[in-house]
Design brief:
By secondary structure, this protein is mainly alpha-helical. It has a domain of about 35 residues. It is built from two helices and four strands; from the N terminus they run ββααββ. The radius of gyration is 37 Å and the shape is rod-shaped.
Length: about 110
Amino acid sequence: MVFCSKCGEKVGETTNFCPKCGARTRKATEAGVVPPKEELKEAFSKMGEEIEKAFSIAAKEIKEAFKTARDEIREAISPEPIACSYCKEKNVAGSQFCYKCGKKLE
């Protein structure tokens, strides 16, 4: 007859876990049977790694989306500069006269 090493309860020779305390028996240890809580730990660990990968990808995509939005907003707010027809210098949008040569901008 076999007894549980943790609580002393009588267990069958083919039993993997003690029915009283849930401890893994010697047979289960030799057979490589993993307790359910160990399987859960491993599953959560793998799930954590997958979530970390997903967040990393999402962070990169969000960063790129913000960059694109920022660039589009900047482009929309700042109109194109005005080129002087005389000296070809670029002037700030809304200027009436060229800051370099003083000619009236068209």
